[in-house]
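A favour between colleagues. Tell me how you read the following sequence-structure pair.

===
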Amino acid sequence: MRLDVVSLAPEAFAPLRGLGVIGRAFAAGRAELHLHNPRDYATDRYRKVDDEPYGGGAGMVLKPEPVFAAVEAIPVLPRRRVLLMSPQGQPLRQADLRRWAGGYDQLVFLCGHYEGFDERIRSLADEEVSIGDFVLTGGELPAMTIINGVVRLLPGTVGTEACLEEESHSALLLEHPHYTRPASFRGLEVPAVLRSGDHGAIARWRAEQQEQRTRERRPDLYARWQSQQAED
C-alpha cells in the first residue's frame, strides 16, 4: 500500500519507520510512506503557506494553493482515498481501518495546521476523519494513528491473523481479559476456567467477559452490538 502524507511537519513521521511491526512492514515493502511538504510548493520568495482569514479573527489559515499543488504532484493509483484530518470529521472506527486496509492501494493524508485551513481544501478529500472530540495543533498525530491502524492490518504485518480477529472493536465488543504465567501473583489468581483445558468452557467465558466488559465500560458500543444481534 502507498501512503502519502501532506504535512508542514513531515519530520514527525520519521519514528513510524522504526516502530516495531509497523517499521518492519515498511522495511519489507508491504507499505510505502511518502511525505510532501506544502511549503515546497509555495511560489513566493518567503515560501508562505498561511495567511490571515477573510472577515478577521484570531490565528492564521492554511492557504489553498500550496496544498492543492502538493496533492496534484502525488502519483495517482487506481484505488485511492484522500483523507482529511479534521476535528469536524467522522469519528474514527476500527471498521474504517479495515475498509481502508482492504479496499485501497493508496491513502493520501491531508494534515492541517495553524488555526485551520482554507475551506476549499476540503474539496480535495474523499473523507474527513476525527480521532476524538478535541483539537490538536495539527493533523500529524491523527494521521500517524490511522497509518499505524491500517498498516498493522495489511497481510503479513502481524504474525497471527487470529489476533486481529479477536481484538477489541473487531466486532464492536471489547476484548476479553488475558492472563499468562504465573497462575498466582501477589494474591491475584488466573481464573480456573482458563487453566481447565476445556476449550468450550474457555470460549464461553471469554464471550461472557467481552459482553460484560463492553456493557460496563462502553455502553454505547454494547447498545450497537445488541442492535446488530437483533438484526442478525
Observations:
- The beta strands are 2-6, 32-36, 50-51, 61-62, 80-91, 106-111, 116-117, 127-130, 184-185, 188-189.
- The first helix runs from residue 20 to 27.
